[in-house]
Design brief:
- The protein has one domain (7-113).
- The chain has helices spanning 7-22, 29-34, 39-52, 57-68, 72-83, 89-113.
- By secondary structure, the protein is an all-alpha fold.
Length: 114
C-alpha cells in the first residue's frame, strides 16, 4: 500500500542525493527501507528488480541486501513475544544498527565483487 500510493517513490526521490553520496542507486532505496519491516514486501521488490534487470549491478545489490539484513520487527514481535519479553529497547536499536551495517556493507562489497 505504501508503494502503491507513491509515497515510497517520493521518499526515494527525496533521499536520492544522500544515497548517491554513498554509492547506492536510488532504485535500491525502497529495498533498504522495506526490508526491516516486511520480508515478503522486500522479496517482492527484489524479485521485480531481478526480473526486469537480471544481470545488472542493481540486481546484485538488492540480492545482497536481501541476504545481509533481517526482518527486524517481525523477529522482535514473534521471537520475543513467544517467550514473553516485553522490554525490547536495546534489542530494537541493536537490530536496526545491524540492518544499517548490512545495507552499508552490501553497498561497499557489491561493487567490488560485481
Amino acid at each position: 500500500m505504501f508503494r502503491a500510493s507513491g509515497a515510497l517513490d517520493i521518499m526515494a526521490t527525496i533521499l536520492s542525493p544522500i544515497t548517491n553520496l554513498i554509492g547506492m542507486p536510488a532504485e535500491a532505496l525502497p529495498m533498504a527501507l522495506i526490508r526491516p519491516l516486511s520480508g515478503s514486501g522486500a522479496f517482492g521488490i527484489m524479485s521485480e528488480i531481478v526480473t526486469n534487470e537480471p544481470l545488472s549491478f542493481l540486481s546484485y545489490l538488492v540480492s545482497t541486501m536481501q541476504g545481509s539484513t533481517e526482518t527486524t520487527f517481525y523477529v522482535l514481535a514473534v521471537y520475543f513475544g513467544s517467550v514473553g519479553i516485553k522490554k525490547t529497547r536495546y534489542a530494537l536499536s541493536a537490530a536496526l544498527c545491524a540492518d544499517v551495517v548490512g545495507i552499508f556493507t552490501s553497498v561497499i562489497i557489491s561493487p567490488i565483487i560485481f
